[in-house]
């Protein structure tokens, strides 16, 4: 499996209307408790693995897998024994003029 470069991922996500793209690291075994983001997310796991739980549904992602979350979606994140590196496109809500 050949992953895109960060620049290729960034260009594709920005072309889809996302506002910014960041690289993120999850520490080995770390659990990020229930939380929400005020932005929508499209992400690509590039190293390691993670479990994303929304409600009662847990999804396992490893390098090469993508996932998306709508803004304000309550979720938890659990990183694998080697942690995880993932790239995240964020789509901020529209601002009132």
Textual characterization of the structure:
The protein is mainly beta. The chain has a single domain, classed as Jelly Rolls, CATH 2.60.120. It contains 1 helix and 6 strands; from the N terminus they run αββββββ. Strands 1, 2, 3, 4, 5 and 6 form a 6-stranded antiparallel sheet that branches. Strand 3 (40-54) and strand 4 form a beta hairpin. It is globular.
The CATH first-level class comes to: Mainly Beta
Provide the residue-averaged pLDDT: 95
How many strand units? 6
Structural domain count: 1
Structural class computed from helices and strand pairing: mainly beta
CATH superfamily: Jelly Rolls
- Taking pLDDT < 50 over at least 5 consecutive residues as the criterion, the unreliable ranges are none
Helix content: 10-25%
Order of helices and strands: HEEEEEE
Q: Which radius of gyration do the C-alpha atoms yield?
A: 13 Å
Note the main sheet: 6 strands, antiparallel
Strand content: over 45%
The third-level CATH topology is Jelly Rolls
User: What is the tally of helical segments?
Assistant: 1
Specify the CATH architecture. Answer: Sandwich
What is the terminal-to-terminal distance? 44 Å
Q: How would the global form be characterised?
A: globular
List the helices and strands and how they pair.
Elements: H1 6-15, E1 20-26, E2 31-35, E3 40-54, E4 57-62, E5 66-69, E6 75-91
Antiparallel strand pairs: 1-6, 2-6, 3-4, 3-5, 3-6
Provide a concise account of the structure shown.
With 97 residues, the protein is mostly beta strands. Helix content is 10%, strand content 56%. It has one helix spanning 6-15; strands at residues 20-26, 31-35, 40-54, 57-62, 66-69, 75-91.
């Amino acid at each position: 499996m050949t992953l895109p470069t960060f620049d290729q991922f960034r260009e594709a996500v920005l072309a889809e209307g996302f506002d910014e793209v960041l690289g993120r690291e999850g520490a080995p075994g770390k659990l990020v408790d229930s939380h929400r983001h005020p932005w929508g997310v499209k992400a690509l796991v590039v190293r390691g693995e993670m479990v994303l739980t929304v409600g009662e549904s847990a999804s396992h992602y490893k390098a090469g897998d993508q996932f998306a979350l709508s803004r304000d979606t309550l979720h938890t994140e659990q990183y694998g024994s080697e942690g995880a590196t993932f790239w995240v496109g964020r789509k901020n809500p529209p601002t009132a003029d």
